[in-house]
Structure formats: structure tokens, C-alpha cells
């Protein structure tokens, strides 16, 4: 089997959808938060023929064409509106096997956009704790190419996944002291996907009008209508910054 790998160095930027402003008494008018993060995420999943997909963060750095993630949130009293976007283009090409040499791990090219948007309302808003329930949607718009097992051999198939899913979830923020906050997020949804879900946990250190955070994030889909992938997931630790304005 012939092997071919294309390596490009780069960084993957991501944004965790955090809880918003520090828990406090609600103020009139709109407050805004912007986020940008470095996400050490790997790609996992499964092809439609049962082959595992494993692309580690190291592989992503070596094979990254382009990656950018960010989010923006607006808060007005108990109401909030947020949007989180990820654009990624990763190539890990090993070529297609023929006959009995079908690889256990499929090589894959993934490029496209993941967008999550929602509207939330504070279920609990105290000085030290904020709990926000929300509803919204997630869009997965990806061009994928995977090496899949067919007819005793394997073949590289290309597909475009364009899934729209409704999501509901909870997110919150706990003030541990004057400087440190604990952030958590979870959502669950369905629609064009059989199931999509996301979870994140982070610690954040506050400065005057900005803060630094470290955490872990997982984002996953079970895909029904695709020629290449039945499951797709991004997961890993991240570090980043938030600005309030």
C-alpha cells in the first residue's frame, strides 16, 4: 500500500461557549463578550463501513491547511444571544488500499464550518452562580473524503455533509473567588443528525475587562445521511482569552 502524507504547520483556534458575564446583579443594556482560543482538538469518528478515524492534535498540526474558531455573546439582563463558529481544513492522506490490505484506521480529509447559535435565559442569577438554559441550532457543513472498505478492497469516497440540528442545553458559571470562575456547558440535539451533543468545562482567571481560560471541550455527531462518515467528533483541551466590551 502506498502512503502519502501532506504536512502543513499551523495552529487551531477555538472558542468554548462560556457562560457570559460574571455572576452579578442584572444590569440594563447590552454587554458583549468575544472569545478566541487555541484548541488542542483531535478528530475521531467512524466511516460508514465501520473503519475508525483517528487524527490526533499532532496530526492536525502537521496536516492543517487552515483552522479558525471564535464566538461572540450578547447579554441583556437575564437574556443572552450567542454564536460559536469553527472553520477547519485538515488533510491526512495515506492513499487507498486494494484487496486484503484494508487499513483498520481510515485516512480522512475534512474541511468546512461548524456553527452553533442560541438564545438563553437565566434560570438562576446570583452573585456567585449563574445558570442559563438555552435553545438554538447547530449547522455542520463539511466536505469529507474517507478511505472506506468496499467489495474486498477500499475506495476513497467524497461527500458533502450539510446537517441542521436543533439543540437545547444548560450552561453556567460559578465564582470561586474574586479572580477565578468555573465555567460549564452541555447541549444535546437532533434533526438531520441522529444525535449531536457538546460538553465543555473550564477555569477562567479574570483581569480588568478580559480573562484567560483553560478547559476541555468535546463536540460530536451521529450522522445518518452520509456516504463517508457515520460518526464525527472533535475533542481536546484548550486555552484562550475573553474580552468584555
Report on the structure:
The chain has one domain (13-29, 36-244): OMPT-like (Lipocalin, Beta Barrel), CATH 2.40.128.90. The chain is mainly beta. The protein has one helix at 57-63, and strands spanning 13-14, 31-39, 42-47, 52-55, 64-76, 79-92, 108-125, 129-150, 153-175, 180-191, 193-206, 210-223, 229-244. It has one helix and 13 strands; from the N terminus they run ββββαβββββββββ. Helix content is 3%, strand content 68%. Residues 1-26 form the signal peptide. Keywords: Signal.
Quick structural summary:
With 245 residues, the protein is mainly β. It contains one helix and 13 strands.
List the helices and strands and how they pair.
Blueprint lengths: L12 E2 L16 E9 L2 E6 L4 E4 L1 H7 E13 L2 E14 L15 E18 L3 E22 L2 E23 L4 E12 L1 E14 L3 E14 L5 E16 L1
Antiparallel strand pairs: 1-2, 2-5, 2-13, 3-4, 3-13, 5-6, 6-7, 7-8, 8-9, 9-10, 10-11, 11-12, 12-13
